Amino acid sequence: MARTEIEVGDPTVSPSLPLSPSSRRRFVPANLTAYGFLAPAGILVFLFFLIPVFLIFFLSMTDLSHSNFTTNLMQMNFIGLENFNKLLSDQFAQKIFFNTIFYVLITLALFNVGMALGVSLLTTHINRRAGFAFRALWILPRITPVIVYILIWRRLTAEAPYGIIAQFNTLLGQNTPSYLTEMPWLMVIVVNGFVGASFGMIIFTSAIESIPKDLMNASLVDGSTVLQRIRYVIIPLLRWPMLFVITYQTLSLLTSFEQILVLTDGGPGLYRTEVWALTAYHRALSTYFGNAQWGYGSAFAVLLVIIGVVMAVIYMRVFRFGELVAEPKIEDLQ
Amino acid sequence: MKRVFLLIVGFVLLGGVMAVSAQDSVDITVRCKASPPEENWRCDNFSEVEAQVEQELGININLNLIQDNIGWGDYKNEFVLASEAGDAPDIVLTGHEDIGAWAASGIIMPLDDMIAEHPEFNDVVPSLWNAMKYQGVTYGVPQDAEARPIFYSKLLLSDLGWSQEEIDSLPDRVRSGEYTFQDMIATAKEAVDEGVVEEGNGFWHRNSNGPDFLYFYYGMGGQVIDDEGNLVFDTAAAEKVYDLFAQLVDEGVTRRDMLGLDGNTIINPGIANADTVVFTAGGTWNWPNFALNYVADKGGNDYLTENLGLMLIPAMETGSAITLTHPLAYLVSSTSEHPDVAMALIAAVTTPEANNRHAIDSFHLGILTTQVDSEAYQANPLLSGSQYMLDYTTSLPNNPGWSSWSEAYYTGIQAVESGDLSPADAVQTVVQQLQNELGDQVVIK
Amino acid sequence: MTTAALSQPVIPPDDSISNLSTILRALRSGVIVVLALGLLAALFQAVLSPIIASTGVEENVTTVLANALISLLPVFAYLACGSSARAAAPRSFMRAVIAALIAASLLFVGITAIESGLHLGAFQPRQSLQFTISQSDDGVLVDSVEAGGAADQAGILPGDLITGIRRDPVTLESLQKTIATSNIDDPLRLRIIRDGEETQLTARVGEGTSFEMSTLINSYVIALAAATAAVFFPRSWVAYILLILSLAPMLIGYAWLLIATFSVRTQGLLPIDAQGNVGGITLQNWRFLVDPLGSNQSVWTITLNTLIVAVAMTIMVILVASMAGYALSRMNFFGRRTFLSFTLILHGFPAVTLLISIFFVLNFIGKIPILGDIFGYNTLGGVALVMVAFELPLGIWLMKGFFDGISWDMERSALIDGATRWRAFWEIILPQIRPGILALGIFAFISGWNAYLIPQTFSIGTRTATLSVFLRQFIGDTAPTDWNQVAAVGIFQLIPILVLFLFAQEYLLNIYAGGLKGSS
Q: What pTM, to 2 d.p., does this model score?
């Protein structure tokens, strides 16, 4: 990846210029300036991520709910690991767990990576303006309010006479299945996939566009076809973006539930399309009759957090995180 | 770049400019959830009586009404969080079943003493007070009540060959217990078999969890709460309920995908147009919505009156017809600085005049005995014709564990209706879930 | 279309031999496609499906995909024939077409033989009432009834006039369609006029003849058309066709959305009036633009609110994230690695699971004098801080990536000249990463514009009313929802960000170039 090789961490560019003796910043410890720049973000992250994450571990060991709600940690009923015990003895926990894996893998393969790659390859090989237009259309699902987006899908797949697919089918004299009940998983995957594909699409497109033009031209001069160019020039260069999208989107899919909530709410029947994050939401925030079980819900969330951390650790390994967080050389200035 | 700074500072300051001016008037905040526009009197009634209460008490009331239509889950969380933060509204309107959990956590105020001070409250239909109590103490004042009847399509029954007389007498035959739930299933099945309606369109019920499913359990002789106030799960009654739901889908009377079916695309237009489904379990408040949203251009209310009828839930095991009421209640926050003023306001809206505005616009039943006889109420044939349903009504229990009970019970219905479990297995599953989540808070019978 | 299309052109040595070889080549690619897709379908159906089923997941995605592959398989095969014929005979279209047609015909015979064995396509049994009908002025006239057939059993007589099914009026066409889309043995309630009197009869759909010549002819025409089209089809259009096909559900869906906002009700893509005819166009769904509709504020006030929230949030996110990104990219300090790793993990946290514990924090802040009135629970400031915090993981990494990507020469000389770190950052570095700022700004603006969960959870009522909150007002959980109204409000909310995105797309493309690059 020629263009990205010149980085701050590039050891060939060593800062060897002498310091100006008049520089006063020499007396300001570098750490202090750094912490000054970092302070706003640090405070926000500390307040709204770090503390809440620790709190959620604590809450998962209490029986906090509407009926005994308090923010005073001392007043809560500490029940140890009982919530986790409950959770693991839940007869549907296993089903929901495998549902989640199935959902993440299939959606990732078909859409978040597969479709994203297809769309970015196609849109970078046509007229530039047209490519922009198609990508803008692909972004639509992501920026449409979830309720409206799901409304569209419901109408597309509704039964006759309301449904749009049903209308086309009727014109052709075909039967229309009741998509949402007969193939709920397909609906869940497609609906989430159309939202998810745009992330990979942006990353892949931007990576393809940043492939040096001479590399592309060279392949054209060689007389290779479009497909050969994709296979031998583009795909190999997409290795890192691909890994990035896979890992990043695995995490996103693991924790996504809003579309499923509005579309099937985990149904039909017994937890057929229920995924882990949705269960956490069901338990913690939304029961029709109130009295949300925040303690129990936190236990579900804690498991999500743990899975997320494990995934992120793998993620860092894959990306040779050490290089990413390599110490900046400009510090040598001071 | 300086401008950017100014903008940020401005944004930050904006948050600070919420100083409530300290006058010698009394601030009262009221929080309501209402489906606009027909239910808006829930909060708007307070501004109608504001001047009157100010005069009575000789104070200046600064009334702050917050009314919207967010989901019940968000709405209830909001009150619990606001109470903890000390920002709770003085008066909150909610379903009576919250009294159990909220009284237990002490965020709402016992009202018995203050209720005695206002004669207006003597007029409230006595049976409604039962739903306002937790462990014998009253925590709320009823705001509205409804019945959850069955809508039947006169059009489709006549297609099936029923005479006008048979159709018109149906509600009375149901009321007397002559026409039972099994009779209704038989009629629905006939309609399906004869192709009058498509398969699965004989009887529809609610498409998501809610109070409605409890009347099946009551109808099968089940009990939710025992004399000591413990939650009860009656396995025999529950199995009969699950048998019934299995029968409904097996016979093709109810759609297998009923739960989760799109209400606004399929269910509501289907009921309102009276040409799709024979019987539907609904609620009285559906009526003005149907008139407004689905058949407005066909004649609205007149179209509905001509083609749809209302009847009680026909008798099941217990032998008598049944319905369920889920009264909403005004509760007073225990952090309220002026509970006396709040109660005076609540008393002022608990009058036939004020409540009629809400009842008539939104087709909720009257909560006051004198209101039922008032001219405005009698002038509305729908309301006066349905008032008898309150005599057959049941309600939800006020218990902190009710939410978990209801979720588990509903899981069983999902399981049998989708065909995932047999009724007997569903009972086992539900019992297991109840014991897992509620432990010894629930008695399995 | 296929790998065969890629093979290098061969120069034909002799006409007759090359004709034959062209046909064989085309046929070969057709067969390869049949086998490949068939194998893929078998993989889904026979391998993946049982594996997934063994985990307890109830899905039929694999089966549906397998069936879709099987039903599309013939068309793909004919396309492959044409495409490969053209590649094999690049000089002469004529020869390519002839080869393609012959190959497709041969393939068609093979596929039809398989279909007849499996009772697919033209050999599928179809539904019928076993009578003949014709359109007349008053309804559908029954011409003759097959003895002992479905119509006969229902008591339908020749000369009956069918006027409706259930409560819907019928025409010849709609009646035929209803029968064709019914299942065998489904009851159909027919409204019939006999001797001037209306009665209703129930007919059960029966099974008609199991072979239809017309279907077979249709599929042969499709085969020839596909093969010919593949020969002539301009290669440069393929990408467009594929893109349009993949977007079809969305294009049609959003078209419906637009239609719905001007309709009383819709069936399929058509607006329908009270009588069930096409019509019923209305501006009612857009009346929220002038009438607050039970909300406390007008939609324009709320839009302004939303704009303020989104813009303010965007500015704060850019400022905070770029400062942090600068420090992380340019300076070394204790805790740097930890902070970077932590922010990376953060993005995986679903906001919803942290809401309650964030409330604890806001509630705590609320108890601090003065500060609490600005940043506590139920304040605009508090809501803003949480929203900014949720954008930070992405923002910090994006900004750090952009800073990493620019040379530090200018900055270094500025520092040597005695500029402060802040001045170097503000005046020299920041202007250089304008594309990054714009990209982050767009992301932040979109999430600010669509914000719902956080303003809803951390404020009472609709104090921080945004358009999303306004939209939810129309969706009751007890009352039925006017979805056409929701569609109108949704489009209103969508338009500004769509426009923004169209204009700013070029900057988003810089993300990879500058920001989120992996290693290498």
A: 0.82
